[in-house]
Design brief:
Layout lengths: L2 E2 L3 E4 L2 E4 L8 E5 L5 E12 L3 E10 L2 E5 L4 E3 L5 E3 L8 E3 L5 E13 L2 E6 L12 E4 L2 E4 L1 H6 L11 H10 L3 E2 L7
Parallel strand pairs: 11-15
Antiparallel strand pairs: 1-12, 2-3, 4-5, 5-12, 6-7, 6-11, 8-9, 10-11, 13-14
C-alpha cells in the first residue's frame, strides 16, 4: 500500500499521517468478523519528496486519496481491487462502514512523499483479517496484502517507456494537495 504523505490512517489514538506511523505503532485493522481491532505495524517505509510517476487521485463525495496504481481497495461487495482497476461510478467501502460511489479517477504525476505500512498479522490466503485499514476515509489494504495478492500484471511504471507514454498522453501533474497543476 502506498499512500501520499499526509494521508490519515486510523490508529488507537485517532488519525495519524501515514508517514508518521512507525513499526510497533497500533492501527485499526480488519478482523475475521468484519469489525476492527488494534493491530501492530510490522512494516513502515516510504520515500520523501521527489516526483512520483503515475499516481492516482481517487475522488468521492468531497474527499480524495492519492495512491500508487497497485494500492488495494475494498469494493462494496467485499472484493479487493487495485487502484489502477477502479472506475468512476464504482462503489467502495468507507471506513465508517457505509458504501460510497467513486466519482473520479485521475492519473497524474505527483511531487511529494509516498509511504507504505503493513501489519504484523501473519498472512493467511483467503483471509483479510489484519489486512484492511481505515485510510483517509476509505477501507484499503496494507502493504502485505498488496505483495501477497498482487493484481494482474501491467507494464512497468517508472521506466523510460512509461514516462514517454505519460508525456504522449499529456497526463496532468498533481500538486501536493492532489489538485491538477
Amino acid at each position: 500500500m502506498s499512500l501520499a504523505y499526509g494521508t490519515p490512517v486510523q490508529t488507537l489514538d485517532g488519525p495519524k499521517p501515514v508517514e508518521q506511523i512507525e513499526v510497533g505503532d497500533m492501527v485499526l485493522a480488519s478482523d475475521d468478523a468484519g469489525g476492527w481491532r488494534p493491530t501492530e505495524v510490522a512494516f513502515s517505509q516510504g520515500a520523501s519528496g521527489g516526483r512520483q510517476e503515475n499516481l492516482l487521485r481517487v475522488d468521492w463525495n468531497d474527499s480524495y486519496l492519492l495512491v500508487t496504481l497497485d494500492h488495494p481497495f475494498e469494493l462494496a461487495d467485499g472484493s479487493i481491487r487495485a487502484a489502477r482497476n477502479l472506475t468512476a461510478g464504482q462503489k467502495v467501502r468507507a471506513a465508517d462502514g457505509s458504501i460510497v460511489t467513486l466519482w473520479g479517477i485521475m492519473v497524474g504525476r505527483f511531487t511529494g512523499g509516498i509511504h507504505a505500512i503493513g501489519t504484523a498479522t501473519p498472512w493467511r490466503a483467503g483471509s483479510l483479517a489484519g489486512r484492511l485499514l481505515q485510510t483517509g476515509g476509505l477501507v484499503t489494504g496494507d502493504f502485505i496484502l498488496q505483495v501477497n495478492a498482487p493484481p494482474p500484471s501491467l507494464p512497468s511504471f517508472g521506466t523510460r517507456e512509461a514516462e514517454e507514454e505519460a508525456e504522449a498522453q499529456h497526463l496532468p501533474t498533481l500538486r501536493h494537495d492532489g489538485d491538477p497543476v
